[in-house]
């Protein structure tokens, strides 16, 4: 069992994520590897155009696997673990992955609308060009995690540990950061309109181009009225 308090007290590693370590060649996923069961371990398998949507399997482990044009839509994969995996142009929408663990994973061009990953642990994970709106990251810990050009509108980061996360060119409109830990979290060229929990951004690092919009949000949270009337 993860000691959440100890994890929160430990300073997360920041910086660019480490790349997944895949073998030179992968065997196509077998029938057994496409019919997932509880506590199953899959190693060095390639999933290409496979439909895993609606799968119900807890504590599955994927080690050194690649997923391309694979659908997990609506799957329930609580406590799933991905280690040294690549996920490309795949569908993770409405996946239930509470208490998941991702380590050295890259996701690009994926759809993850409505993904629920509360209580997860992400280490060395890169999201690029992903649609991840309305995702649930409550109580999740981010260590060396990057979001690049991602749609995170309406995402919920309540009580998440974001000290090791960075967001670049992302749409975070309407995202929630209530009670999040954010000292060192980086934001650059992001859409921040309507975000919640701005008073929890102590220690966050924001690019100068984002400051104007952020100042209006902070003023609103503090009850400051901005008079735009000219004398």
Could you characterize the architecture of this molecule?
With 231 residues, the chain is mostly beta strands. It is built from three helices and twelve strands; from the N terminus they run H-E-H-E-E-E-E-E-E-E-E-E-E-E-H. Strands 1, 2, 3, 4, 5, 6, 7, 8, 9, 10, 11 and 12 form a twelve-stranded parallel sheet that branches. The relative contact order is 0.11.
Mean pLDDT: 90
Q: Kindly, what is the distance between the CA atoms of the first and last residues, rounded to a whole number of angstroms?
A: 62 Å
Overall 3D shape: elongated
Number of helices: 3
Low-confidence stretches: 1-7
Strand content: 15-25%
> How many runs of DSSP E, i.e. beta strands?
12
**What is the radius of gyration?**
19 Å
Order of helices and strands: HEHEEEEEEEEEEEH
Class by alpha and beta content: mainly beta
Question: For the report, how would you describe the main beta sheet?
Answer: 12 strands, parallel
The portion of residues assigned to helices is under 10%
Summarize the structure.
The chain is built from three helices and twelve strands. With 231 residues, it is mostly beta strands.
């Amino acid at each position: 069992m993860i000691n959440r308090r100890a994890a929160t007290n430990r300073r997360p590693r920041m910086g660019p994520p480490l790349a997944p370590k895949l073998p030179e060649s992968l065997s196509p996923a077998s029938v057994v590897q496409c019919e997932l069961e509880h506590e199953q371990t899959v190693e060095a398998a390639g999933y290409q155009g496979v439909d895993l949507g609606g799968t119900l399997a807890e504590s599955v482990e994927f080690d050194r696997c690649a997923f391309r044009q694979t659908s997990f839509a609506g799957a329930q994969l609580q406590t799933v673990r991905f280690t040294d995996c690549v996920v490309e142009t795949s569908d993770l929408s409405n996946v239930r992955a509470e208490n998941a663990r991702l380590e050295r994973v890259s996701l690009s061009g994926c759809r993850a609308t409505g993904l629920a990953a509360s209580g997860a642990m992400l280490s060395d994970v890169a999201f690029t060009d992903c649609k991840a709106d309305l995702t649930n990251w409550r109580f999740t810990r981010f260590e060396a995690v990057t979001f690049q050009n991602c749609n995170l509108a309406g995402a919920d980061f309540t009580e998440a540990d974001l000290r090791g996360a960075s967001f670049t060119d992302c749409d975070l409109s309407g995202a929630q950061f209530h009670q999040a830990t954010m000292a060192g979290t980086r934001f650059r060229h992001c859409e921040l309109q309507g975000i919640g929990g701005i008073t929890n951004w102590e220690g966050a690092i924001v690019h100068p181009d984002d400051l104007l919009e952020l100042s209006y949000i902070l003023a609103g949270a503090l009850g400051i009225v901005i008079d735009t009337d000219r004398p």
